[in-house]
Amino acid sequence: MSESASLSTGIAARYATAVFELAKDGKGIDGLEKDIDTLDSAISDSSDLDGLLNSPVYSREGQGAAIAAIAAKMGLSDTLGNTLKLMAAKRRLFVVPQLIAALRDLIAEEKGEVTADVRAATALSADQEKKLAATLKSSVGKDVKMNVTVDESLIGGLVVKVGSKMIDTSIASKLAALQNTMKEVG
After folding, report:
1. How far apart are CA 92 and CA 110, in angstroms?
2. DSSP state string for 129-162
3. Is 146:130 a contact under the CB 8 Å cutoff?
4. Cα–Cα distance, 70 to 61 (Å, whole number)
5. Which CATH number fits domain 3-109: 1.10.520.20, 2.60.40.1170, 3.30.420.40, 2.60.120.10?
6. What count of other Cβ atoms lies within 10 Å of the Cβ of residue 150?
7. Which residues of 162-174 are buried (b: 16+ CB within 10 A; e: fewer)?
8. Fewer CB atoms < 10 Å away: N or C end of the chain?
9. Could you tell me whether strands 165-168 and 113-120 are parallel, antiparallel, or unpaired per DSSP bridges?
């Protein structure tokens, strides 16, 4: 990991811990989860918001006023809104994506959940998702929240990543393994 990425993650982790503890003390974990979903989708949907977070051309006051207005318009909790304003004052808005990821991890840990990133060759039906979640739950011993994406380059099968474990049952990886085996023989 690069030094700047490590620094950003450390900064985000400190803010995330503070926000999480405040939300936990105020029994507002569910509200915090909704807030970070709202903020994450807004960042994904708006290049202007992403620019505000990452551009050094805005003044501290300008960033602070803009992020306060955005937080109010989105209906974010006071805890998260005030944290974003503080981050603007300290020129730390560039770590908001890492803050969101750290908060998701803390909330999942609190709820006894784990997130699985699933890439499938075709879209999974609701029944297939339910069976996969049940299988993963029996394997890891926690409730599983799945992020499913379609990746047609897999040809068939799945690639499932849970924590540091990855299970690759895709046809593309099997073909690659077969190709390597054939190279070794020939």
Report:
1. 26
2. HHHHHHHHHHHHSSEEEEEEEE-GGG-SSEEEEE
3. no
4. 14
5. 1.10.520.20
6. 12
7. beeeeebebebee
8. C
9. unpaired
Q: How many residues does the chain have?
A: 186
Q: At which residue do the structure tokens 């990452």 appear?
A: 54
**Cα torsion angle, 110, 111, 113, 117, sign:** negative
